[in-house]
């Protein structure tokens, strides 16, 4: 009785473990980390260096708080010009049904032409209600992808319709979106919007920050930099 029981347990274990082993092989296959290129979209191709202030924003294109945080951040970037640069990372939140497919659309746009990325992100922010859970609960995944292809080609130009469609059949764009997800979670980001300035997370993560909030964070940093460069001649 005892012996037979053990035998059954071994069998049971092999049934349990076999799929796990198979799954881990699959994971290794799809694991392309670290990625060949750093995650994120640089705003206005305004790539800074170690002397400029780096803002990293973690957004979900179908998240209302991400949407609300964009206009004041954009205004702040305009104010600071080349002293501040922005990299946007995507975090498709699992409780937003269409977040991953929307993020993938942004990766497709970026692959087609990097200057399409932010206009499309702004289109998502403007019309994100279309892709909310309740609005799309009766739609199949296929028809949502069709909707997003139509939506995106309006933003980037109708001539890109078929390129966009094939983008959704290209495994690379799926993998890039996964890398975005993994990168965001590896930074400890668990909601959107999250902001980091020069690598450090800002308090009140997950809530929009208004223009004055940005000024109060960045003004002292810009001031610290200019007083530093004024001091340089004293040392020379
Ligand atoms: C990308 O788009 C911009 C703006 O529409 C355009 O000026 C540029 O020529 C495009 N680049 C390519 C490689 O198509
Ligand atoms: C989804 O389908 C149900 C049943 O046909 C209908 O009652 C509901 O209004 C539909 N929802 C939407 C958002 O279209």
What this model shows, in words?
The protein has helices at 2-30, 64-80, 99-112, 117-127, 141-156, 161-167, 171-186, 211-235, and strands spanning 41-42, 53-59, 84-90, 194-197, 200-201. With 236 residues, it is α+β, with helices and mostly antiparallel strands. The protein has one domain (41-220): Glutaredoxin (3-Layer(aba) Sandwich). A five-stranded mixed β-sheet has the order 1-3-2-4-5, with helices on both faces. A hairpin with a 2-residue loop joins strand 4 and strand 5 (200-201). The longest helix is centred in the N-terminal third of the chain and has 29 residues, at 2-30. Bound molecules: 2-acetamido-2-deoxy-beta-D-glucopyranose (2 copies). Residues 113, 115 line the site of one 2-acetamido-2-deoxy-beta-D-glucopyranose.
Summarize the SSE layout with pairings.
Elements: H1 2-30, E1 41-42, E2 53-59, H2 64-80, E3 84-90, H3 99-112, H4 117-127, H5 141-156, H6 161-167, H7 171-186, E4 194-197, E5 200-201, H8 211-235
Parallel strand pairs: 2-3
Antiparallel strand pairs: 1-3, 2-4, 4-5
One 2-acetamido-2-deoxy-beta-D-glucopyranose binds next to loops.
Proportion of strand residues: 5-15%
Which outline best applies? globular
Rg is: 22 Å
What's the pLDDT, averaged over the residues?
87
Total of domains: 1
- Would you state the CATH class? Alpha Beta
The third-level CATH topology is Glutaredoxin
The CATH superfamily name is Glutaredoxin
Please write the string of helix (H) and strand (E) elements. HEEHEHHHHHEEH
- Quickly count the helices: 8
Compounds present? 2-acetamido-2-deoxy-beta-D-glucopyranose
How many beta strands in the DSSP annotation?
Answer: 5
Structure classification: alpha+beta
Low-confidence parts, pLDDT < 50 over ≥5 residues?
18-26, 229-236
The helicity comes to 55-70%
Identify the CATH architecture: 3-Layer(aba) Sandwich
- Report the major sheet: 5 strands, mixed
Strand order of the largest sheet: 1-3-2-4-5
């Amino acid at each position: 009785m005892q012996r037979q029981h053990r035998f059954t347990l071994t069998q049971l274990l092999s049934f349990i473990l076999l799929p796990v082993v198979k799954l881990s092989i699959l994971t290794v296959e799809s694991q392309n980390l670290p990625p060949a290129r750093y995650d994120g979209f640089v705003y206005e191709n305004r790539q800074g260096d170690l002397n400029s202030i780096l803002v990293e924003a973690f957004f979900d294109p179908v998240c209302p708080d991400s949407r609300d945080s964009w206009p004041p951040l954009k205004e702040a970037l305009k104010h600071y010009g080349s002293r501040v640069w922005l990299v946007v990372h995507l975090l498709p939140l699992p409780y937003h049904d269409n977040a991953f497919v929307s993020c993938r659309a942004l990766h497709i746009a970026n692959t087609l032409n990097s200057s399409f990325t932010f206009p499309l992100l702004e289109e998502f922010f403007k019309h994100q209600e279309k892709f909310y859970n309740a609005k799309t609960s009766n739609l199949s995944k296929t028809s949502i992808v069709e909707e997003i292809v139509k939506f995106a080609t309006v933003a980037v130009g109708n001539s890109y319709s078929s390129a966009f469609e094939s983008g959704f059949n290209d495994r690379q764009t799926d993998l890039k979106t996964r890398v975005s997800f993994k990168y965001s979670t590896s930074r400890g980001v668990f909601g959107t919007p999250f902001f980091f300035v020069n690598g450090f997370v800002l308090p009140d993560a997950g809530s929009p920050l208004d223009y004055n909030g940005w000024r109060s964070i960045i003004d002292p940093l810009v001031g610290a930099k200019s007083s530093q460069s004024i001091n340089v001649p004293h040392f020379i």
